[in-house]
Amino acid sequence: MEIDKARQRKARHYARQKLVFSLLDLVLLLTCLTLTIATGLDKLLRDQLYMAVLWAPILTWHPFPGYYPAQLVAYFAIAFCGYCCLSLPLAYLRYRLSFRYGLALIDGSTWLHDTGKNLLLNFALQAGALLLTYGLLASQPHWWWLWLALLLLLFSIIMTNLAPVLIFPLFYRFKPLPEGELNQRLLELARRTATRVQGIFTIQLSHRTTAATAALMGLGNTRRIVLGDTMTDRYTIDEIEVVLAHEIGHHVHNHIWKMLFSQGVLTLAGLSLTHLFLRWLMDNQNMYFSLTDPATIPLFALLVVSFHVLIMPIRNTLSRHMEYQADEYALQVTQKVDAFKSVMRRLASQNLTEIVPAPLVEFWLYSHPAVHRRLRHADEFAERLLSSSYASASFKSCNRAATSSTGPSGMVNSGSSTPHSAH
Question: What's the pTM?
Answer without folding.
Answer: 0.86
